[in-house]
Amino acid sequence: MNGMSCSMLVFMLASGAPVAAGAGGARLSAREMLEKVDDLYRGNSSYGKMTMKVVTGHWTREMKIEGWSKGKQKSLMRILSPRKEKGTTTLKSGNNIWNYLPKVKRVIKVPSSMMGGSWMGSHFTNDDLIKESRMSDDYDFKTTFEGKRNGEDVVDITCTPKPEAAVVWGKLVVTVRTSDMQPLAVLYYDEDLELARTMTFSEIKEMSGRRIPTVMKMVPADKPAEYTMFRYNEIKFDVPLKDDIFSLRSLQR
Amino acid sequence: MNTLRIGWRSIWRNKRRTAITAAAVALNTAILIVSYGLMDGMIVDTVHSVTNMLTGDAQLHAPGYRADRSFYKSVQNVDQVLLAARQAGIDASPRSYGYGLVSVGHKSAGARFWGIDPRLERKVFGLAGQMSAGEFISERREAAGDSETVGRDIVLGRKLAKSLHAVVGSEIVAVVQAGDGSLGNELFTVKGVLKSVGEEVDRAAAIIDKRDFEDLFVSKGRIHEVAFNAHGRLTPEQVVAALKPATAGMELFSWKQLLPALADMVNMFDAAIWIFGMIFFLAAGLGVMNTMLMATYERMREFGMLKAMGATPWRIIRDVSAEALMLALFSTAIGLAIGIGADVYFHAWGIDLSGLGGDVVFSGIAFNPIWRATITTTGVIAPVVVMWLVCLLAALWPASKAARLDPVRAINHV
Fold first, then answer.
1. Is the CB of B180 inside 8 Å of chain A's CB atoms?
2. How confident is the model over B223-245, as pLDDT tens digits?
3. In this structure, what is the dihedral angle of CA atoms B352, B357, B359, B363, given to the nearest 10 degrees?
4. What's the predicted TM-score (pTM) here?
5. Considering its fold, how many domains does chain A have in total?
6. ipTM, two decimals
7. Which residue range(s) make up the domain with A86?
């Protein structure tokens, strides 16, 4: 995942010690804030149901998806609706992605040349699913704004990739609300430092004992009228899952 | 006639010198004829490849389609366009394009899908004849009732098939983002694999029937390109002019505009043959001039005597020119025979360029690896006639020198 888009998109991608919720009003360092954002949706394993709404200039559609994840490396997502795609399943294992297509009953591997392609028609790429990085590890960061914006106390943390980090972005700007340390937005800049896309977070609710933003919206900078919106309907952390859920065999079930 | 006969006899007074000059002029003429034939052959073959295989004389796209190849920028009023083409006697093939993924077993690759009308594509263009294995797709077989059991055929570009390890009969899974945002997927059977016809096609083409394309891409009949072929009855510019009224608001371009690098190459060939020709004419002309200078110099006393007997300068010029002309006629006749002989050989057998390694591809268009000469009236006559003029011009200086001789001094010249 690039920055945290993916842990947001597919909460199940990564593990790591879940951060105790409710850091509250205590004053946190930039690193602590980033770590909190990094770990927002992480657990040893997880299960969830979500709705993905994709709006483009040519069509609008909504998909219901359920997903499982274990560790950093493994995840499985299955489309529940609409009917045409029902049962279409994406398996991520390490750096590889496979799709199972129930209509033709075949599994296909997404080739490296298509990693930049859209995942299920959304504004996320296949790369977003597999690229993993932690902002607090792979980026140098500093606080670039602190104060009130739209009536809320916020902090902007600007992250620039470390020279050796395998990330595609030139810069990230993370906006965190200081009152409860919830992320509000992440701006993604490309290598020319042009704004490439904006992710915003909203509807912070408590799910499975954690306060998390339940809605994420990704807007591509070159098409401001388009977006992909994720809404978590259900999420459970640290659920017991067997490894063989994440196998090519189970993909076809 | 007498003058010519005298000229003919005069040039053979020095047999060796005339034979050498004649050989040079003949060789130059022959080389010019053959090189024109080969250059023209290259141009004709290029234009033929472009206009008859895939690109056509002209193509129609929606505004901006060629820049971003957006699935949603489709040609409007296709039926009207096709009608206008039919009325103008121009064949047309509508095509739809979309991007997606093709997969065989564990191999997968990105592909550009072509939705075509197999009957039209076969009739209008020669792609169907460019198979390295199997056959081109035919019209979709309709099974009674159940559309799911219909055999769906696909033809792959050469490099795409290679990267997928696909052969005729392989099962292909196609996965695409359909026009309504849904995930289109379908099974196909490889019916054939194309020969190398150009980089883009080789690497990415996955050609399917237009109805399969509509199912896969939920394309609602979108057409992204109409390719026109007048089969040589009209020039590309005439094709564009004929279709302009029916295609207002859309991008209609001749192949020369679509493939400017290739058009430049054709123009460059034309220029090259001229430069090439000039050098050869100059060489031949200097040879003839030298011969005629020698011939007049060694006969100075003869010309002096003629003038003393009352020959006018014009008479001298005429005699010397007649000699040059006879030399030219004789040499070009030999050159013509050799040139046509070589042309016929290169037309029939050609030069096999495949030994140079790899495919002969330029500007994304693959060429016939056998380079053949064409034989045209212009290509044969022009070098001969120009050579006559060059010989006559080359003789003018020696002739005028001889004509201006002072009889007394010339007769006494040692």
1. yes
2. 999 999 998 899 999 999 999 99
3. -100
4. 0.77
5. 1
6. 0.78
7. 5-251
